[in-house]
Every structure is written in structure tokens, then in C-alpha cells.
Design goal:
This protein is mainly alpha-helical. Helix content is 71%, strand content 0%.
């Protein structure tokens, strides 16, 4: 039997469903964008600035930290996946924030995704 989602057991979290849906939409757009870029573009660094791949890795870690905080779990360092897997990693950790995060975590996650969009 499946465990109920947090908003099924906590009405306050259910009130955040529009924000959750918007985060899932934004997350899907950015993850698809990362998946669709050539690896050479993701790995390219300009004038000593972090590469887009590095920015996505940092964003995925930030989302993982938000999810861990929302779930009451310790923060853990994400494994370093190959550049080709960054879109999937972003999608997975972002889905955890969308599922478990409160209002502040959802807003912070949206800001992380804005940074990803700018980095790409």
C-alpha cells in the first residue's frame, strides 16, 4: 500500500498545491532544457566563471538540501553524475521539494530554478 503524500495528511500543506504545481512545471522546463543542451555547451566555462554544468550541479545540491530540510533528514552531498545526467538529477531532487516542501522551501526552490535558467 502506498503511503499518503504529506498534503493528504496535513491540510495546511494541501493548501500549497498551486505552488507545488508551479514548481513541478518550472522544474520540468529547466530539466528538459538541461537535457536538450549539447554537452559541450554545458561544460563550457567563460572567463573563469563556473560552467553551466557546475551551476546545475550547485542548483541540484541546493534543491537536495531544501528537500532534506523539509523531510527532517540530514543534508547529504549529492553524488557527482556525468554531465549527461544533470537534467535527471535536477528533476529528481526538485520533485522531492515539490512533494515535501512548505511555502518557504517552494519559494526558495523557484529561486534556484531562476538561477539555473540564467546560467543556461
Amino acid at each position: 500500500m502506498n503511503d499518503p503524500t504529506p498534503h493528504e495528511t496535513d491540510p495546511e500543506l494541501g493548501a500549497l498545491e498551486p505552488q507545488r504545481a508551479e514548481l513541478r512545471r518550472s522544474l520540468g522546463l529547466q530539466a528538459d532544457r538541461v537535457r536538450g543542451l549539447p554537452l559541450s555547451r554545458l561544460e563550457r566555462s567563460v572567463e573563469g566563471a563556473p560552467s553551466p554544468a557546475d551551476a546545475v550541479r550547485a542548483a541540484a545540491q541546493a534543491l537536495a538540501d531544501l528537500a532534506a530540510d523539509a523531510e527532517g533528514e540530514p543534508r547529504r552531498e549529492l553524488p557527482r553524475v556525468g554531465t549527461h545526467g544533470l537534467g535527471d538529477q535536477l528533476a529528481v531532487v526538485g520533485a522531492d521539494v515539490a512533494r515535501f516542501g512548505g511555502a518557504a522551501a517552494l519559494a526558495a526552490a523557484q529561486e534556484v530554478l531562476v538561477a539555473v535558467r540564467r546560467a543556461l
